Amino acid sequence: MNCNMCEKVCNSRLETKRNNSIEPSTYAAWSNNTETRFTSTSGGLFSELSKSIVDKGGYVAGALYNKENLVEHFLVNDLEGLKKLKQSKYIQSNSGFIYKQVKEKLEDNKLVAFCGAPCQVAALYAYLSKDYDNLITFDFICRGMNSPKAFKAWLSEIENKKGCKITRVWFKYKENGWKKSPRCIRLDFSDNTYNVINGDDNFFMAGYLDYNLYIRPSCSNCDFKGVPRISDITLADFWGVHSSVDDDKGTSMVLCNSTKGKASFVEIKQNINYTERCFKEIFNGNQCFSSSVWLNKKSSEFLKSLDKESFNSAFKKYAKKPLQLKIKSLTVKLYQRVKSSIKRIINFNKKK
């Protein structure tokens, strides 16, 4: 139509909801419900916050897997629906008509919680054009959104080899502990069996975490890093938190960015184990809180190659780190070894 409305909305998105705290209230927390915690990516705080909304008769908008194992945003208002919204999904979600559906519920005076990447939360506020007292928003520390094409190619290769359909994808499966979960995926199949893909065998997560082979180009220059946050509450893994609050079962990092966010957190305190932390603690384990990822120059070639060859074949061809990244990686490893050695020497001298 050439109405230029999309440009007007995009140009206004950075001014939307950016008056939140520049040093949010920071917590390390997890659900008191053992099952909720195990089946969640971190400590289950999204589930507890969302359950509080549903218990009040409200609605929760979040990402779930569709029948094709791709991700789309959906609106739910019961506990069964909330189970489908749990866990991280490391591919881009199709927003569909979710913003329109959220607005309809808000206009109908229903309580609504929306969870998405920071850019999706910003898109919602831009679409609504105003704040609503009955809206609470959650975002997460985003490393970057992956191409559904690459994810589908990876799953299809596994399905063809197995000879049956994948019925469930479970990223960051905690079978061997939370700390090892970033490279652990459980895949359930239609024949009632499941496979756990771990470590070096997990090519999809390696392509994401090590080589940035299928991250969206816009994610390499993200407008929504750092503070103030766009949402009322930011959720993430609390990597590197003090050992006194890390039992390797999953610990959520919770940032209450606004008065509304803090009030929502207070409401669920009886259902969680939590400790207040220093805001500065989050940076060591969550570099992507304030920095965008680098863009792999071979990403476009990799995605095109999937039209002709399998995911694993393409991965082996393109999974190569740039020289400067190799040097940086070696430097970090050397630093960690030196730091560890110094710490051992200090501890040894203390014992003497």
Task: From the structure above, extract its key features.
single chain; 12 helices; alpha/beta; 17% strand
Describe the structure.
- The structure is a single chain.
- By secondary structure, the chain is of the alpha/beta class.
- Helix content is 36%, strand content 17%.
- An eight-stranded mixed beta sheet has the order 3-2-4-5-9-10-1-11, with helices on both faces. Strands 6-7-8 form a three-stranded antiparallel beta sheet, with helices on one face.
- The longest helix is centred in the C-terminal third of the chain and has 29 residues, at 323-351.
- The protein is globular.
- The protein starts with a helix and ends with a helix.
- The mean pLDDT is 90.
Task: Write a brief structural summary.
This protein has twelve helices and eleven strands. By secondary structure, the protein is an alpha/beta fold. The relative contact order is 0.16.
Estimate the global geometry from the Cα principal axes.
Answer: globular
Please provide the ordered H/E string of secondary-structure elements.
HEHHEEHHEHEHEEEHEEHEHHH
* Residues in helices, as a percent range: 25-40%
- Unreliable spans: none
Strand content: 15-25%
Compute the CA-based radius of gyration. Answer: 21 Å
What is the tally of beta strands? 11
